């Protein structure tokens, strides 16, 4: 099957294609223009923008936290509404099937679930396997588990640490590693309720900084493409910018990725002791090339916060809206589900402005990634409106006019003139995520790439344009036309496949027998348990 997409404005920063041209698809790959070949199918893209399929590096779309949120909030499911889709949650993929469809309609073809507990890996993968169309990947959580903390306490060699990280990534079928409030969940078990970068975990005698640096070094040494994905300490607290600044400084020349930086962009100025520190953090990120970040943009309306940061969720439960929550303590991180509604009050306006400031003040679109930390800052269905805010200063000014002046006085947002271009969008949502994750087969439109392609019909309404793709191809298969799904297919699960060290496997077998009375086999699972019609994709790393 040879398909020609003709007459569109191609935006492919990786290959330097920025202008009108044709694109050819041979079966499931992008191919060079054939010599004298006739297309079996021609797509007229005149008046359209053509980009690679978008990639979301941080969106909570599967696993225990997401499923618990569904159970906690049945009244916000579409099936329970007086009219269909009357709340953001009912329209934000709160079934696995909707998730894939709604992402695909916007031109997204790959999404990463960034917080998979190793003990719940099978559940997570089974749920992700039920999401159609898009490819999926996961990040495995480490940094609060007894095995790792004990090794750090006992001065285990760097090789042993790397062997454990490699085993975790391999056994959970993950694409990388995430640490969440390093050491805080372990400290929480001993009634600690606040925890900073240089605080020490009781019973282990290791600091949060030590845990982060240990995992950062292991991930880097193993050659995992995606740097250690760090959920910092003190999320959401006034003054959390100090924690983020200290964590940025701790990178020390080794790649590090900071998640949802908006939630750490809070200063303590003003009579409410809550202000924007976005300009300060943006300056630090700009000056630290080894650090990349994603935003976690807040958008106004009802949502639910889901997190394995049990300490943060425990402290936030009093702000639940509606007034119900779930907090649970696990062997590693535990977690919590706290519904929340972002209003256009002082605090909601500050959070909204801080995220946009970070987007607009960080210079390099290759190191800032487009997320709402779905669903924590907003459902991913808010992406089109967020694109418009980034690309239109006029849209931002209109939104600012309806917000409290007391909040805007503590933000630089109104003075920022920058507007994102389509090339910036292509870098931030396509090229850069593929590079960060080590996915050389996507994020661009060069010959040999998988044919994940999004075509958008130009429209003065940016949100409409980028929210309803004219055409979306997944592996060369036309899955969206005029904003609607044409048919369903199954994507792949993308993973690393390091070879676990046999001595580490024996040590882990002894540990699990002594700790749980169970064989290590109980904490692993065969690929046949989760494979769909498509095989697993694999990404290489050193071992």
Automatic annotation (TrEMBL):
<keyword id="KW-0560">Oxidoreductase</keyword>
<dbReference type="InterPro" id="IPR013108">
    <property type="entry name" value="Amidohydro_3"/>
</dbReference>
<dbReference type="InterPro" id="IPR050378">
    <property type="entry name" value="Metallo-dep_Hydrolases_sf"/>
</dbReference>
<dbReference type="InterPro" id="IPR011059">
    <property type="entry name" value="Metal-dep_hydrolase_composite"/>
</dbReference>
<dbReference type="GO" id="GO:0018493">
    <property type="term" value="F:formylmethanofuran dehydrogenase activity"/>
</dbReference>
<protein>
    <submittedName>
        <fullName>Formylmethanofuran dehydrogenase subunit A</fullName>
        <ecNumber>1.2.7.12</ecNumber>
    </submittedName>
</protein>
<feature type="domain" description="Amidohydrolase 3">
    <location>
        <begin position="41"/>
        <end position="459"/>
    </location>
</feature>
<dbReference type="InterPro" id="IPR012027">
    <property type="entry name" value="Formylmethanofuran_DH_asu"/>
</dbReference>
<dbReference type="InterPro" id="IPR032466">
    <property type="entry name" value="Metal_Hydrolase"/>
</dbReference>
<dbReference type="Pfam" id="PF07969">
    <property type="entry name" value="Amidohydro_3"/>
</dbReference>
């Amino acid at each position: 099957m040879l398909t020609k997409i003709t007459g569109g404005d191609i935006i492919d920063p990786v290959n330097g294609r920025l202008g009108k041209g044709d694109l050819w698809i041979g079966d499931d790959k992008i191919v060079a223009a054939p010599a004298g070949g006739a297309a079996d199918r021609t797509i007229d893209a005149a008046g359209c923008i053509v980009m690679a399929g978008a990639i979301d590096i941080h969106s909570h779309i599967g696993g225990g936290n997401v499923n618990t949120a569904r159970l906690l909030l049945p009244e916000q499911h579409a099936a329970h509404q007086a009219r269909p889709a009357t709340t953001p949650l009912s329209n934000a993929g709160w079934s696995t099937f909707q998730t894939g469809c709604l992402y695909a309609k916007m031109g997204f073809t790959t999404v990463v679930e960034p917080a998979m507990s190793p003990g719940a890996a099978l559940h997570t993968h089974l749920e992700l396997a039920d999401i159609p169309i898009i490819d999926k990947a996961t990040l495995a959580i480490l940094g609060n588990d007894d095995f790792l903390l004990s090794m750090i306490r006992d001065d285990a060699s760097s090789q042993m640490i790397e062997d454990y990280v490699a085993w975790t990534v391999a056994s959970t079928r993950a694409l990388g590693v995430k640490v969440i409030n390093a050491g805080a969940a372990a400290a929480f078990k001993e009634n600690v309720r606040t925890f900073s970068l240089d605080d020490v975990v009781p019973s282990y005698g290791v600091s949060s900084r030590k845990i982060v640096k240990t995992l950062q070094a292991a991930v880097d040494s193993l050659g995992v493409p995606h740097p250690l994905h760090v959920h910092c300490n003190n999320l959401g607290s006034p003054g959390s910018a100090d924690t983020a600044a200290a964590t940025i400084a701790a990178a020390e020349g080794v790649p590090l990725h900071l998640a949802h930086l908006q939630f750490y962009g809070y200063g303590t100025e003003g009579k409410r002791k809550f202000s924007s520190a976005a300009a300060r953090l943006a300056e630090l990120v700009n000056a630290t090339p080894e650090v990349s970040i994603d935003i976690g943009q807040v958008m106004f309306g009802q949502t639910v916060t889901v997190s394995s940061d049990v300490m943060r969720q425990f402290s936030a439960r009093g702000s639940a809206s509606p007034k119900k929550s779930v907090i649970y303590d696990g062997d590693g991180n535990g977690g919590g589900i706290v519904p929340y509604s972002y209003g256009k009050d002082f605090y909601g306006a500050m959070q909204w402005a801080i995220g946009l400031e970070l987007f607009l003040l960080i210079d390099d679109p290759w190191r800032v990634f487009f997320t709402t930390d779905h669903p924590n800052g907003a459902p991913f269905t808010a992406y089109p409106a967020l694109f418009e805010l980034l690309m239109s200063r006029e849209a931002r000014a209109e939104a600012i006019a309806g917000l409290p002046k007391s909040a805007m006085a503590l933000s630089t947002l109104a003075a920022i003139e920058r507007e994102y271009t389509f090339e910036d969008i292509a870098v931030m949502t396509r090229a850069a995520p593929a590079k960060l994750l080590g996915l050389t087969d996507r994020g661009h439109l060069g010959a040999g790439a998988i044919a994940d392609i999004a075509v958008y019909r130009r429209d003065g309404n940016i949100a409409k344009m980028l929210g309803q793709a004219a055409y979306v191809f997944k592996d060369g298969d036309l899955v969206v036309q005029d904003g609607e799904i044409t048919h369903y297919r199954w994507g792949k699960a993308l993973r690393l496949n390091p070879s676990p060290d046999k001595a580490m496997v024996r040590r882990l077998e002894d540990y699990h027998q002594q700790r749980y009375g169970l064989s290590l086999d109980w904490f692993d699972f065969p690929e046949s348990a989760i494979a769909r019609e498509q095989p697993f994709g694999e990404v290489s790393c050193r071992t």
